[in-house]
Design a protein that fits this description.
alpha/beta, Rossmann fold, 5 helices, 8 strands, about 30% helix
């Protein structure tokens, strides 16, 4: 069975949003996921290598995955929305997968700035069953919204993340309500340098397990 790949434009709150929908290669999807990319003002796009590996790992685990570019990124219209606008963009992507896969559980994941978007969206949307936060940037102090996330929270983090030092992430993670899990990937930096395969394997394991171990 050929893998379905579809490029599309979603009607976003600030104009059209460029998106890419991909299904698993050899089976019907069992979950529907939205994946959020890093900061748009620092070169973040849906084609970022960590985002790509997140999406591919989830597909290997059986997810249909919708990646998209926030407002103002590449072919998406609009301007940077201070994180709140990008959360609204992610909500549009969530509505799209809900309409396409109404029988599947929905999840959301994101990398760096995108992990904050994913967590904020999850705090606002009861339909999201779980969330994956990759490379959560502890350098941002504003994070009260995360304590409202009651669904399973999977954090995947580099052991040498310059935007989320290990001690800071461990301290923050300890304050979060259950259910939660933290996976450390031995790697050189925020972008999982020299460890992308290990990172993707962790995503496959998380994606394949609907429970928190």
């Amino acid at each position: 069975m050929a893998r379905r790949i579809e490029t599309l434009f979603l009607p976003g709150p600030a104009g059209k949003l460029e998106a890419l929908l991909e299904e698993p290669e050899d089976a019907e999807p069992v979950e529907a996921a939205v994946v959020c990319h890093p900061h748009p003002r620092h070169g973040g796009t849906m084609h970022n290598k960590v985002v790509y590996r997140l999406a591919r790992g989830l597909r290997k685990a059986g997810c249909a995955v919708l990646r998209f570019n926030y407002r103002g990124v590449n072919l998406s219209e609009g301007e940077y929305g201070l994180g709140l606008g990008e959360t609204d963009d992610a909500r549009v992507a969530l509505r799209e997968i809900e309409s396409r896969y109404p029988h599947l559980p929905a999840m959301v994941g994101g990398f760096s700035f995108g992990s904050r978007v994913a967590l904020r969206l999850t705090s606002q949307e009861a339909a999201i069953r779980r969330v994956i936060a990759v490379g959560f940037p502890t350098v941002y102090s504003e994070r009260e919204f995360i304590y409202g996330v009651q669904v399973p929270k999977f954090f995947v983090h580099s052991t040498n993340d310059q935007y989320g030092p290990r001690a800071d992430l461990e301290t923050f993670f300890a304050t979060l309500p259950e259910p939660k899990r933290l996976d450390w990937i031995e790697s050189a930096d925020h972008f999982f340098k020299d460890a992308l395969d290990a990172y993707e394997a962790a995503i496959v394991r998380i994606g394949s397990d609907f429970r928190l171990a």
